[in-house]
Amino acid sequence: MNTLVWFRQDLRTLDNQALTLACEDAKARGAKLYGVFIASPAQWQTHDMGQRQQRFLLANLNALGERLAALGIPLELMVVPWFNGTAAALKGFCKARGISRIFAGAQVEIDERRRDASLIEKGFPLHLTDEHCILPPGSVVTQGQRAGQGGAMYRVFTPFARRWREIAAARPLWPIPSPAAVAPALSFEPFPFWGDSVANSPGAASKSPGAAVSESDTACANPSEDGALALWPAGEDAALEKLRGFQQRSLARYAERRDFPAIDGTSSLSPYLALGVISPRQCLASLLEAFPEVFVSESSPARTWLNELVWREFYRHLLVAFPSLSMAKNFNPLADAIVWRNDEREFEAWKAGRTGYPLVDAAMRQLQQTGWMHNRLRMVVASFLTKHLLIDWRWGERYFREQLIDGCLAANNGGWQWAAGTGCDAQPYFRIFNPMSQSEKFDPDGRFIRKYLPEIAHWPTKALHQASGTGQVANGLFDNGLSKNDSYPSPIVEHSRARLRALEVMTVMKKG
Ligand code: FAD
């Protein structure tokens, strides 16, 4: 009987425990090893996964297919629109290939966990490994105990991070597994995009390398046409190259440069991490190679970047500990009483980068054009939407997910609830970013704003930091009509009045 490795959010060959175990299993039993990826476009649509990230996924899947072929492992693509069709499709797939063991990386999102639990319940020989975190969810809990034995998930980041560092420092990281060839090299034919039309079809389709492709499959644009792919070339070699470049050029100065969007001061690894083209352990290994003291020395230049990797883990662990986070619920129940304004015209203006606040607008254009946004700006635009405009964070979360090439439920939900003040260890509800002073502080010469708002690039820098440069409100606080004569709009809200309004509405968050 043969072995299967089922790739999900772990589109890599290095540091992939599921793949390593599957190779060992196949070798030990003299079995043939297969690889599969199951695309579920209809289900993903309900998760708000955008076309851009799906195309990036496909490009990385094809890069993975090439690498697996060199190891003698054929990779196949199955298109099963909804998760509830997985069992039937997988059963047929395994039966046809005589598969008796399946290895796959566990996922943290609720629908994915339910799908896996149901497959195991139905008797599928599914062996799950931890691929997405350095320390698996449930292993960093209060009182030094494991979840389920008295310890609980932390609700505050700082003690979580302290405990995380203690455990991680005591664990050996090495060696990062790298699988050896299991059979002679094969050829690999790239998969076409699964396309929108597949999302609505009821059945499941299997596409093996070289299989005939229907016209509807190719209806969507070629992934390489998306400009985002020029910024994030596909494949684990490209991801590792980016990591190496960051380690050598930027890691040491990360803390001082990471908040300035005009500077290339962060790693830009998030699109790869979100799809598992690179693992967080590989990131940690690279960090420790350059700064071995990082766990023990608070002043290590790499400490801030380590902290970001730990934030990533914090949000993933939270998703497992509190499944309601996957169901669009406020983490803090007091937030259920917030009465959001939810003005659709203002939401459209925010999405289009036409709020009249240049830093906010430049950030929203960066998102539209590249599928990525600098972290400082994600905080600024999320605060602006939820506090200045009093629009429900779930609207922003969904739009981000549709646009982002690095979309990830845990980090996106965590970031939005942090900014809105509704989340776990969130920004307090009464802290409201001033988009003008954020602009002066983090884009002092206006370089970032000029890049994404060419229509006002000629303005003096001082004017770029103010709302529309005039300081005037279009037609008062509640009238969001845009200026007709100017190609750049007047501000849709006036900062200090919007701030007071938000404070008033959000007092429901005040602890009794
Ligand atoms: P670096 O600064 O180099 O950090 C390294 C890695 O650490 C990142 O690639 C990322 O995986 C992780 N990381 C860094 N900051 C955070 C953070 N605050 N929370 C969780 N993980 C972090 N990140 C996503 O990957 N996907 C999202 O959908 C996402 N949505 C966000 C929404 C909002 C409103 C906010 C405020 C933040 C969001 N983030 C999200 C977190 C963060 O903005 C991005 O991870 C970061 O900008 C990616 O750039 P980088 O790879 O250069 O990060």
Automatic annotation (TrEMBL):
Cofactors named for this entry: (6R)-5,10-methylene-5,6,7,8-tetrahydrofolate; FAD
Top-rank taxon, per record: Bacteria
EC number: 4.1.99.3
Record key words, sorted: Chromophore, FAD, Flavoprotein, Lyase
Limits of the Photolyase/cryptochrome alpha/beta domain: 1-134
Cross-referenced InterPro entries: Crypto/Photolyase_FAD-like_sf, Crypto/Photolyase_N_sf, Cryptochr/Photolyase_FAD-bd, Cryptochrome/DNA_photolyase_1, DNA_photolyase_1_CS_C, DNA_photolyase_N, Rossmann-like_a/b/a_fold
GO MF terms, alphabetically ordered: deoxyribodipyrimidine photo-lyase activity
Cross-referenced Pfam families: DNA_photolyase, FAD_binding_7
Family the entry assigns: Belongs to the DNA photolyase class-1 family. Belongs to the DNA photolyase family.
Protein known as: Deoxyribodipyrimidine photo-lyase
Species per Swiss-Prot/TrEMBL record: Shewanella jiangmenensis
